[in-house]
Amino acid sequence: MSDALLDQLASSQQLLIAMTQLIADDAPDRVGAWTLRDIAAHLATTEKECFEPRIRAMAAGERPEFEYYSNDERDFDGITLRDSLNEWTETRARLIDFVRGLSEEERARVGIHKKFGELTVDGYLRIALEHDQDHLVSLERLATEAAR
Q: How many domains does one find in the chain?
């Protein structure tokens, strides 16, 4: 399997972090009901509590079953934007390094997601990438509004 997906995840994260920092410097810090800090904490927490442990369990051959994960209602007060971005960076790097070390057989192992059905490790990485891209769209919208 190609490492292009892992490169896309790294690039996606870098773009999201850069966009978050740009907006934090130049615009109001709200995207809808969430602050930029909330978004960063949400991304870091999702990576740490959902993507990383689930992908590790799948690669281990446990064939885990997953419910839909959400931390949308969590209160991220007391967490700074910088700390959240740093935590997300560390967790994403750890996940990418872990997956780069897997064999093709390990990357082809599956888990069963209640919403998405049977997923390989790479399938779950694509969900992580789509999650990044969803938040990037929101940040791009905010940056466009701030530029007006």
A: 1
